[in-house]
Design a protein that fits this description.
165 residues, alpha+beta
């Protein structure tokens, strides 16, 4: 076997093995930075994957009430996965937490709920493609469908998520 062929086989084997290890890597924390429009998958405090995200039309500030088109800020849990959603896969975020309920109660409003991390709308592929580039959700966090596939596999139910301003 020639030197070039041997090196090529070594490179292919290394790439295949590292790909297997990477595919099995599970996130132990998810971090969203609204100001950067980024979602980070972390393992033992180290970011190993980054995704572009979009929010509702009013992304600045924490969610206060249902219908305010804001994404919550704080510490939550990704508490269940939903494959039969109007969006391409969805993972529920445990909003509202105690602080959210207290803030909303002081303001005399309903904090809302059903905040998800999800893919694009299933209804129209052209709209789904465009929706990756502007804030359109009702307060959820949206990613491209191919990114949702990676996140779906990397995140187990019960994984903490922190959403920062």
């Amino acid at each position: 076997m020639s030197f070039a062929v041997r090196n090529l086989l070594l490179i292919l084997a290394t790439t295949f093995i590292s790909g297997l290890c990477y595919a099995q890597l599970k996130a132990d924390h998810v971090l969203v930075k609204k100001s950067e429009r980024k979602l980070f998958l972390l393992r033992k405090g180290i970011v190993y994957e980054t995704f572009h995200v979009v929010f509702g039309p009013r992304p600045h500030g924490p969610k206060l009430t249902e219908g305010d088109e804001r994404t919550p800020e704080g510490n939550y849990i990704l508490d269940y996965k939903k494959s039969n959603s109007p969006f391409y896969r969805a993972i529920h975020i445990s909003y509202p937490n105690r602080e959210d309920r207290e803030r909303s109660a002081q303001a005399g409003v309903d904090p809302g709920g059903q905040i998800m991390l999800h893919g694009q709308p299933k209804t129209d592929q052209e709209i789904a493609e465009d929706a990756r580039f502007f804030n359109w959700t009702n307060g959820c966090i949206a990613v491209a469908n191919e990114d949702m596939d990676i996140i779906w596999e990397a995140v187990d139910v019960g994984t903490p998520i922190t959403i920062e301003p």
